Amino acid sequence: MLALRGDRGDPLSPGFFARDTLQVARDLLGKLLVREVDGRRLWGRLVEVEAYLGPQDLAAHSAGGRLTPRTRVMYGPPGHAYVYLVYGLHHCLNFVTGDEGVPHAILVRALEPGPGVGRCSGPGLVCRALEIDRTLNGRVLAPPDLYVADDGVRVEDHDVITGPRVGVAYAGEWAARPWRFRVATAILRPPPPGAPGAPSRHAAARRRPPP
Predict the structure, then answer these.
(1) Residue 169 region, left (φ>0) first, then alpha (ψ -120 to 50), else beta?
(2) How far apart are CA 155 and CA 30, in angstroms?
(3) Is the distance from CB of 108 to CB of 49 less than 8 angstroms?
(4) How far is residue 72's CA from residue 64's CA, in Å, rounded to a whole number?
(5) pLDDT tens by residue, 14-34
(6) Which of 8, 90, 106, 134 could tie 124 with a disulfide, CB 3.0–4.6 Å?
(7) Burial of 172 (0-12, 13-18, 19+ CB in 10 A)
């Protein structure tokens, strides 16, 4: 488990996200995701993310250059939040990355939660624990609402595991791309069946594509 030594750090600038998406995904590990709401500061340390490199990436919402009201934010400037709803129940948070006009994004899959923050071992649980919903869609990642901060914690390369992304078998050869990045020492326990945030078997069977 990474040290959760504080909720302070320097907010990352949009320039951090305006780089190669795979490099951004790797560099996000160990950073703090901070949500300020109603006078409270909720936070956790990023320990698992997935990169999506549309439009050529068939696992991405923007595959084939798809441009819809939902995906429009992915074509905008990097350093913004892309938040969408799955199963009609669970919000998922993504960071827009790369060059403006090229729809890349990184899905936040898991955090090591800070004090007083609930379980964050899945995308829906992250958003529930940090009170993130579609009102933040398109919002710049900057204080005071939602941002990523660097408090000096570093994740060494030997502690990073890469592998295929989750739930994208429909994408053919793109499903095998090792674009999921996670911290080897992080504790990522899935919620038990029936727990809040755990999809039912029926929901899992009709899983929708991630960004």
Answers:
(1) alpha
(2) 6
(3) yes
(4) 14
(5) 999 999 999 999 999 999 999
(6) 90
(7) exposed
* Residue 18 tokens, joined: 């305006």
* Rounded Cα–Cα distance for residues 41 and 62 (Å): 32
What length is written for the chain?
Answer: 211
Name the residue type at position 165: R
Task: Give the domains, in start order, of the chain with CATH numbers.
Answer: 10-205 (3.10.300.10)
Q: pTM of the prediction? A: 0.86
Instruction: For residue range 33-86, list pLDDT tens digits in order.
Output: 999 999 999 999 999 999 999 999 988 999 888 889 889 999 999 999 999 998
Which DSSP category does 71 fall into? G
Q: Which tokens in the block code for residue 72?
A: 């429009």
Give 200's contacts (C-beta < 8 A, 6+ positions apart).
none
